[in-house]
Prior knowledge:
Layout: E1 6-10, H1 17-20, E2 25-28, E3 31-34, E4 37-40, H2 49-57, E5 63-66, H3 69-81, E6 86-90, H4 98-113, E7 119-123, H5 128-143, H6 148-158, E8 162-167, H7 172-176, H8 182-190, E9 193-199, E10 205-212, H9 214-228, E11 236-241, H10 245-258, E12 263-268, H11 271-277, E13 282-287, H12 297-306
Parallel strand pairs: 1-2, 1-6, 6-7, 11-12
Antiparallel strand pairs: 3-4, 3-5, 8-9, 8-13, 9-10, 11-13
Helix pairs in contact: 3-4, 5-6, 9-10
Amino acid sequence: MPAQCNLIIDSCCELPREAWDQPGVFVLGLSFTFDGEEHIDDFFQAISAHDFYEAMRNGAAPSTSGASPREIERAFREAISAGVPAVYLAFSSGISGTYNTALLVLDKLKEEFGPDLSLYVVDTLAGSTTEGVIVLEALHQRERGLTAREMVEWVKEARYYVQTIFTVDNLDALHRGGRVPRSVAVAGDKLDVKPMLSWDLDGKLAVVGVARGRKKALKRMVDFYEKNHGEAAGQPVILGNADCPKDAERLEGLIVDRNEDALIMHSSIGPTIGCHVGPGMASCCFWGDDRRKSLSVTDRIANKVKGN
């Protein structure tokens, strides 16, 4: 059966090329500045992950600027020319302006093609390997015949069932990006404290705990998986790493030791996220329990009022 919708994905999903490189899938590369020059995130085709992160270890401080309206429009026009309704699965609006820029570009194209243009933009409220989990299953749902409108509604619900935990090797990059104060970064490094981070329901970064040392941080990630995968134990688990593949392999071993049915996929943390987390980030993302259930009753009411 021919696909009822096409997908536009961005480079923040960080999936291996073989997972998404197929007809009807269009890619939007986000941009970053490295060595004084602007580059498009191309899934480490022009520069290797090791070279990128090694440069950061040696003092390089790359930065991100989000996707340009021109690059978004290029991807959207390419999808429109295919003649099939399309959905853009956007990088979280909680930490990037890409989603809102995409909406502005969509409004511009509707002036040209008409208000009934079958192109939709949906906020995944996620990035990095979390976004990859959503995109991977969206590709499967596309094969099952979801229409573009159905895909939008599917993503709006599915994004709350993706569980995420990740840690970073040090807090320098997060400090440079304004995520944590310098005092916290210095104290954390001196005490060898590894923050445990996730995404909140608004798609913003959230600290969910700390661990003393790398080994304990990895164990905390496995504990988190055991606690939150629910009935989705056989679904894909994406393990991301920012040039620390041995940690990813160790994490896989720990997860499989506890749950041999876990389906593991590895992902390289791309430069868009890498600029903010630095080398040594390790992540674990998977389908699991509805994250909205962890909210207090009053917060659930507030979310209903806001329409979340």
